[in-house]
Amino acid sequence: MTTVIAFILMFGILVFIHEWGHMIFAKRAGMLVREFAIGFGPKVFSFTKNETLYTIRLIPAGGYVRVAGEDPEIIELKPGHHIGLEFNQAGKVNKIIVNNKSKHPNARVIEVEHVDLDHQLIIKGYEIDEENELLSFDVDEKAFFIMDEKETQIAPYNRQFASKTTGQRAMQLFAGPMMNFLLAIVIFIILGIIQGVPVDEARMGQIQPNTPAEEAGLQPNDEVIQIEDQSVSTWEEFTSIVRDNPGQEMELVILRNGNEEVITIVPNEKESVNQKGEPISIGQIGVYQATEKSILGTLQYGFIQTYDITKLVLTNLMMLITGQVSLDMLSGPVGIYDATDQVVQTGFMNLLLWTAMLSVNLGIVNLVPLPALDGGRLLFIGIEAIRGKPVPPEKEGIFHFVGFALLMLLMIVVTWNDIQRLFL
């Protein structure tokens, strides 16, 4: 149950911060944000505030921000339609009743002759059963359609996605991944504040009990300067040598209280997999890296760790594209849940670290120029900036539709791989 709660909270935070970025920059640009959703499918919970419908939906597989103009408007009025109009105190139309007009006895029913809710905000028409001149009604910019007793706010062109500059639209799309990177930076800074920042040198922190490190007599603050005939100056060099020598006796030269000492250690063998998914054995001795606390070091740690993980994810992504890494290595929601279960058992700090890593992954994946992702939409805005005019909406729509179908197919394959790894 702890894992379920941790997974839901972690997933909710990652999706919320991503979609919050999209929403905030959409509103800053003056776009009408129709819906802010966590999850997909049927609504579980919803409320409306400041023009936006906030929803939690049943299927926890992501989220979305629906901005006016990104999709065709649901309701379109045409000449000949009979509609009801209700007015505000300023005399402007504030409710356009599309059907069930009998439920609104105070509405003024007209037959539409002309309507422009994008620019002029005007409706022209004739009252039903009366022969008189053409009537013209000004429409409030925040008027609502009422269809099947459900209200939907109109979206004048200046509130639509397409009306904004290239830079504003690009920023609105980029804001989601950007917030994921910022979240990772903040989490790493928090970890630095709580745990301290790992030092660069190969200096010992906590020594785990009943491990080769304890048996060999290693102590906190011991610094390894040499292994066999190879000098060691960083923690990465030290751990790399240990990993590459499982079960092999090694002679370590350490600095302890300013004096050099020599100890012998034999790393335990642990089963793991390499980047190609092949089983391998690695060495472990049971030590943690030493840490230190400083304000500047903690701030730097947040940015450096986010940069290092970003570089690692991009490297692995390129290896996947070039075929150096198998598709079987990808994990979907099932695999992430299983990994979260293992991380939860190691403590809250490791769960924070795992959340930061997933946040970076989410940011990078969404920037990949694939259909239906933020990166794919940014690609079209880039093409528009180069061409000087947008790609026809119907062509872009086909591109995203096909891409979304392929992404769903990939998700099914990845989920099946996860299930095979866990149960078969």
UniProtKB/TrEMBL annotation:
Keywords: Hydrolase, Membrane, Metal-binding, Metalloprotease, Protease, Transmembrane, Transmembrane helix, Zinc. It is a multi-pass membrane protein. Its main location: membrane. One of its GO terms (biological process) is proteolysis. The keyword rRNA-binding does not apply. SUPFAM superfamilies: PDZ domain-like (SSF50156). InterPro entries: PDZ, PDZ_6, PDZ_sf, Pept_M50_Zn, Peptidase_M50. Residues 184-258 form the PDZ domain. Its cofactor is Zn(2+). Coiled coil: none annotated. GO terms for cellular component: membrane. One of its GO terms (molecular function) is metal ion binding. Its EC number is 3.4.24.-. The chain crosses the membrane at residues 6-25, 173-194, 317-339, 351-370, 397-416. It is found in: Membrane. It is an enzyme of class 3 (hydrolase). Belongs to the peptidase M50B family. This is Zinc metalloprotease. It comes from Oceanobacillus chungangensis. The lineage of its organism: Bacteria, Bacillati, Bacillota, Bacilli, Bacillales.
